[in-house]
């Protein structure tokens, strides 16, 4: 069942029907500057976004200082060559995000095996036991992983990693039919949000219509180099796949 905690419920309900902007940048991105994520977050606030998704303790802290009124979904991406698990993969990253004061902690809740040779989704239960006051956002790639995450206490589930696992790596667009099934089946047990492969306001509105509590959009808003690459990819006859750049390890 959805949380009965009044504080958590207030935060989660404040996101209903709104846009959460993913404000992330890596140091090898062509748009990188020390304050770029803060500018992204300030622009999102100006536009009327209801929340921010941010990566790494440093960037989360900077954003929380700049836009304290917006709830932050915090994560920490750590890449290894032997695994596709990179979103908040261990308790070390959970600890660091919690210390920033991020209202929500996002982590990989897929069945994939981590660099530490554990199932990624095992971390959720451990993190909830350590931080019962935290709100947890489960990034999954399919319906079964969403179900497993909810059974282990996830407050939020989203198909963030659809397209980022070996089984779904060939995918470019969202699976709206599967997402609608998640919304129908899990709406009483968790907050189902949409994240991934949304490129227009119309895409976002479709997801709200299908039952999304809110939507998270990143690349289409805050990563103009990838938006440009999508155009170039099509204009060049799909000779290069822009998604390779989107999925690149940093």
Automatic annotation (TrEMBL):
<keyword id="KW-0119">Carbohydrate metabolism</keyword>
<dbReference type="GO" id="GO:0005829">
    <property type="term" value="C:cytosol"/>
</dbReference>
<dbReference type="GO" id="GO:0006053">
    <property type="term" value="P:N-acetylmannosamine catabolic process"/>
</dbReference>
<dbReference type="GO" id="GO:0005975">
    <property type="term" value="P:carbohydrate metabolic process"/>
</dbReference>
<protein>
    <recommendedName>
        <fullName>Putative N-acetylmannosamine-6-phosphate 2-epimerase</fullName>
        <ecNumber>5.1.3.9</ecNumber>
    </recommendedName>
</protein>
<dbReference type="InterPro" id="IPR007260">
    <property type="entry name" value="NanE"/>
</dbReference>
<dbReference type="Pfam" id="PF04131">
    <property type="entry name" value="NanE"/>
</dbReference>
<comment type="function">
    <text>Converts N-acetylmannosamine-6-phosphate (ManNAc-6-P) to N-acetylglucosamine-6-phosphate (GlcNAc-6-P).</text>
</comment>
<dbReference type="InterPro" id="IPR011060">
    <property type="entry name" value="RibuloseP-bd_barrel"/>
</dbReference>
<dbReference type="GO" id="GO:0047465">
    <property type="term" value="F:N-acylglucosamine-6-phosphate 2-epimerase activity"/>
</dbReference>
<comment type="pathway">
    <text>Amino-sugar metabolism; N-acetylneuraminate degradation; D-fructose 6-phosphate from N-acetylneuraminate: step 3/5.</text>
</comment>
<dbReference type="InterPro" id="IPR013785">
    <property type="entry name" value="Aldolase_TIM"/>
</dbReference>
<dbReference type="GO" id="GO:0019262">
    <property type="term" value="P:N-acetylneuraminate catabolic process"/>
</dbReference>
<keyword id="KW-0413">Isomerase</keyword>
<comment type="similarity">
    <text>Belongs to the NanE family.</text>
</comment>
């Amino acid at each position: 069942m959805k949380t009965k905690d009044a504080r958590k419920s207030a935060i989660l309900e404040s996101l209903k029907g709104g846009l959460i902007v993913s404000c992330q940048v890596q140091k090898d991105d062509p748009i990188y500057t020390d304050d770029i994520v803060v500018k992204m977050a300030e622009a999102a606030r100006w536009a009327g976004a209801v929340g921010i998704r941010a990566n790494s303790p440093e960037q989360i802290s900077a954003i929380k200082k700049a836009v304290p009124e917006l709830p932050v979904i915090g994560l920490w991406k750590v890449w290894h060559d032997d695994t596709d698990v990179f979103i908040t993969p261990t308790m070390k990253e959970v600890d660091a995000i919690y210390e920033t004061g991020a209202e929500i902690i996002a982590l990989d809740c897929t069945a994939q095996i981590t660099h530490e040779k554990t199932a990624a989704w095992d971390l959720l239960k451990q993190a909830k036991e350590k931080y019962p006051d935290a709100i947890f956002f489960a990034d999954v790639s399919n319906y079964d992983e969403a179900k497993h995450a909810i059974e282990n206490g996830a407050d939020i589930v989203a198909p963030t990693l659809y397209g980022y696992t070996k089984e779904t790596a060939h995918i470019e667009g969202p699976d709206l039919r599967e997402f609608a099934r998640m919304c129908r089946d899990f709406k009483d047990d968790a907050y189902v949000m949409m994240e991934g492969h949304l490129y227009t306001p119309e895409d976002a509105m479709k997801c709200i219509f299908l039952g999304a509590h809110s939507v998270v959009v990143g690349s289409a808003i805050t990563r103009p180099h990838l938006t440009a690459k999508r155009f170039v990819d099509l204009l060049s006859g799909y000779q290069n796949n822009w998604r390779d750049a989107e999925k690149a390890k940093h």
